[in-house]
Amino acid sequence: MYIIFFLLPWLLIGLGVLAVGFRGPGGPRQLMAGTSAGFKLLMLVIYLGVGLTVPAIVLANRGKAEGATNHLQTVVPSAQVQKGKTLFRATCASCHTLAAVNARGVIGPDLDRIGTMTPARVLSAIRIGGTGQNRMPAGLLQGSNAAAVAAFVSAVAGK
Ligand code: HEC
């Protein structure tokens, strides 16, 4: 919904440019009178390019902002993922790096960079403690809390 407020100024600028361009003799039109047709075409392409491409890229990428702290976040995470985010901050962020919550822990691996984070992999890491070599404490969370963190991490890690 908030994306409208971001797009509206671009739309208005685009419409304004069109209005100026199509106005009758006089005014800004004379400013452009000496310029070649090719230059005018170039300007049109640039305006359309910026006005359409930038919002299109933002729209196309908004799914990636799920659960993130980004101010352009548009996807509202489920209650479970939200709970997992809170639990991750409290329980895991001290040891792990995860960009989605600005976690910068260095004792454990960077969860954005160690391959695909499936919920099962995270659940297993919580249950047995990492890969089971006694380097990460086992059983930090149980049941629905562990599941919530697994859902959250798998949704945001590496994105
Ligand atoms: C005391 C520090 C510490 C805490 C707290 C901690 N971890 Fe870890 N974690 C580690 C270390 C160290 C490793 C690497 C050791 C290993 O892979 O066995 C690791 C590994 C992992 C891995 C990678 C396992 C794999 O498949 O390679 C995942 C996923 C993980 N942790 C998730 C979590 C989650 C989720 C939490 C919060 C519930 C958490 N960790 C809390 C230290 C920690």
Description of the structure:
With 159 residues, the chain is mostly helical. It folds into two domains: 3-65; 79-156, Cytochrome c-like domain (Cytochrome Bc1 Complex, Chain D, domain 2, Orthogonal Bundle). Helices cover 54% and strands 3% of the residues. The protein is built from six helices and two strands. The chain has helices spanning 3-22, 28-31, 37-61, 79-91, 119-128, 143-156, and strands spanning 97-98, 103-104. A two-stranded antiparallel sheet has the order 1-2. Strand 1 and strand 2 (103-104) form a beta hairpin. The longest helix is centred in the first third of the chain and has 25 residues, at 37-61. The two termini are 22 Å apart. The model has no long low-confidence stretch (mean pLDDT 84). The structure holds heme C (HEC). Heme C (HEC) binds at residues 91-92, 94-96, 107-109, 111, 114, 121-122, 125-126, 130-131, 133, 135-137, 140-141, 149, 153.
Which sheet architecture does the biggest sheet show? 2 strands, antiparallel
What would the principal axes of the Cα set say about the shape?
elongated
- The helical percent reads 40-55%
Distance between the ends: 22 Å
Proportion of residues in extended strands? under 5%
Order of strands across the main sheet? 1-2
Give the SSE order as H and E letters.
HHHHEEHH
| Mean pLDDT over the full residue set | 84
Low-confidence stretches: none
Task: From the 3D structure, determine the CATH topology of the largest domain.
Answer: Cytochrome Bc1 Complex, Chain D, domain 2
How large is the count of helical segments? Answer: 6
Distinct small molecules bound, one entry per kind: heme C
